[in-house]
Design brief:
single chain; 156 residues; alpha+beta; Aldehyde Oxidoreductase, domain 3; 5-stranded antiparallel beta sheet; 4-stranded mixed beta sheet; 9 strands; 34% helix; globular
Length: 156
């Protein structure tokens, strides 16, 4: 399966090795790893809890992956892992790997996937600050603008 939701951490090298094993047609492997930060808007973050509806989140990640494979038919493989549960600063949250014979396709597809995962995947994030406050994280305007560049003329 190329899309996984999990509470456990992941091993980037093992995931990449499994995806490229024995495949000599691949000339580019792009990886993106999202990490939990310790500061957001001048507030120290102690941890972040990611909640989700498993079937809904799985379906949306698969839809995003399928759209990338349609837009970049030269992609030779993808892998998306998104974690849930409580994470502390420095923990890995998300992994996106894209494979292609050429780097441009792999870079563009990875960026597309991450832009849509960030905005459209149904995860709800709550940050706990050093002051003990719990606050839900809203989508940022920059995330909304990031996906606009991927819209086709029919979608605008």
């Amino acid at each position: 399966m190329s899309v996984s939701l999990q509470s456990d951490d992941f091993d980037i090298s093992a995931e990449l090795d499994a995806l490229v094993a024995g495949r000599t047609s691949i000339g580019a492997a792009v990886t993106f790893t999202g990490l939990t930060r310790d500061m957001v808007a001048d507030q120290r973050i102690m941890d972040m809890t990611l909640e989700h509806y498993p079937q809904m989140a799985q379906a949306e990640l698969e839809r995003i992956e399928a759209e990338a494979l349609t837009r970049w038919p030269l992609l030779e493989g993808t892998r998306i892992i998104h974690r849930f549960g409580t994470l502390v600063p420095g923990d890995r949250i998300v992994l996106v790997i894209t494979l292609s014979a050429h780097r441009q396709c792999a870079f563009e597809a990875a960026e597309f996937i991450m832009d849509f995962v960030k905005l459209r995947a149904p995860f709800w994030k709550k940050e706990r600050t050093a002051e003990g406050d719990n606050q839900w994280v809203d989508a940022k305007d920059a995330d909304k603008r990031a996906i606009e560049r991927w819209q086709t003329p029919n979608e605008q």
